[in-house]
Specification:
The protein has about 400 residues and is an alpha/beta fold. It contains 13 helices and eleven strands. It has helices at about 35-45, 85-95, 110-115, 115-125, 150-155, 175-200, 210-215, 220-225, 265-275, 290-300, 305-310, 330-335, 370-380, and strands spanning about 25-30, 50-55, 75-80, 100-105, 130-135, 205-210, 245-250, 255-260, 320, 340, 345-350. It has a six-stranded parallel sheet with strand order 3-2-1-4-5-6, with helices on both faces. The radius of gyration is 25 Å and the shape is elongated.
């Protein structure tokens, strides 16, 4: 897929401006992990920060070729063994020169390794120390293992998704790990960085996926309190149960997404869909099943591409459901360069966009340890390239 030369830039950005992003000059240390921590560090790197990922010997165990791990783009990597005194010392050397450090260990692990907030702040009081966990740093479940699905389950978010007569549908790991986790960590460390630069004092940011995911449900809780939302699936305006806000199968097995909430958009939807009269009233939830059946029958009469053409250039709020491989070729996304090709991998371009400090995918995924010499030079940590003492033993 060819990428326009303005990929990743906002309209109106200055021609020839180096695509380094608004965080150029910000130094970030990422203690390698999996999931939301690396994604948060990628977002900071996309925005221009100099992110040094501290990989562990042997890698994180994801089983993915590092060349294709997009979450490590725009970063640099060194390999350090934090179970050795030398590895700990080098991380503290990096933390002394950093603005932000991100770790995703269980509570207490960083402290046991000698790279916890106390150790780092003793070397750099201005450091923003970002902690990414599922359960948070305190509470009964803080020391327990977990994954996205469990975090969104206990916050009530998972209960919102899916058909009423089937188990809740799993939204990949987008809702918990990345929306409730990574994005809140990034907001937190950037807010704390603003405070650190104003006061000279760093702090610890406790970003728990359960907290962020619960925060995402704020509007729903307001609707629940107002009596405008029922605490069960299949009866609410935005949970896929209303005939004018959901998905429908087409004649070729594809699907169309309908979001015709406002009356004027719904009127345009009905006109283009061509439902025969009389149309069941949308104001009566008791007849939603009847209306949904009529809409479903119409969508089954044509293919996804045919319906896409019918609703193109309208305000009916209808869109085709595309696969991951199809999405980059959607005319609107292609025109905006929402996706880009880099190092042979099609991937989302950095977001959001900036008029004065454009961003870009500058480098492919960092290979573990490949940037040791450059980081040692640029961060003035020559000890990174020194051979460890073979007599020093790893911690148990």
């Amino acid at each position: 897929m060819a990428t326009p030369p303005t990929a990743g830039r906002s309209a109106g950005s200055t021609a020839g401006t180096p695509p380094h992003g608004p965080l150029a000059g910000v130094r970030v240390v990422e203690l390698a992990g999996i999931g939301p921590g690396p994604f948060a560090a990628m977002l900071l790197a996309d925005l221009g920060a100099d992110v040094v990922r501290v990989d562990r010997p042997g890698g994180p165990g994801l089983g993915i070729d590092p060349a294709h791990d997009v979450t490590n783009r725009n970063k640099r990597s060194v390999v350090l063994d934090l179970k050795t005194p030398e590895g700990t010392a080098r991380v503290l050397d990096l933390a002394e020169r950093a603005d932000i450090l991100i770790e995703g260990y269980r509570p207490g692990v960083a402290e046991r390794l000698g790279v916890g907030p106390g150790d780092c702040h003793a070397r750099n009081p201005r450091l923003v120390y970002g902690r990414m966990t599922g359960w948070g740093q305190e509470g009964p479940l803080a020391p327990r293992a977990g994954h996205d699905i469990g975090y969104i389950a206990v916050t009530g978010a998972l209960s919102l998704i899916g058909d009423p007569d089937r188990p809740p549908a799993v939204p990949a790991n987008l809702l918990g790990d990345y929306a409730g986790g990574s994005l809140y960590l990034v907001v937190g460390v950037l807010a704390a960085l603003h405070h650190a630069r104003a006061t000279g004092t760093g702090q610890v940011v406790d970003a728990a996926i359960v907290d962020g995911t619960a925060h995402l449900t704020a509007m729903i809780h307001g609707m629940l309190a107002a009596g405008a939302w029922q605490d069960r699936r299949g009866v609410n305006l935005l949970d896929g149960s209303s005939p004018f806000y959901g998905t429908y199968e087409t004649a070729d097995g594809g699907h169309m997404a309908v979001g015709a909430l406002e009356q004027r958009f719904y009127d345009a939807f009905l006109e283009l869909l061509g439902l025969p009269d009389p149309v069941p009233p949308r104001e009566d939830p008791a007849r939603w099943a009847e209306l949904r059946a009529a809409v479903a029958a119409r969508f089954k009469s044509r293919t996804r591409d045919e319906w896409t053409a019918v609703f193109a250039d309208s305000d009916a709020c209808v869109a085709p459901v595309l696969s991951l491989r199809e999405a980059p070729h959607h005319p609107h996304l292609a025109a905006r360069a929402t996706f880009t090709d880099h190092a042979g991998t099609t991937q989302p371009a950095p977001a959001p966009r900036f008029s004065a400090t454009p961003t870009a995918v500058r480098t492919p995924p960092a290979r573990p340890g490949a940037d040791t010499e450059a980081v040692a030079r640029d961060w003035d940590v020559p000890q990174l390239t020194a051979s460890p003492d073979p007599q020093r033993k790893a911690r148990p």
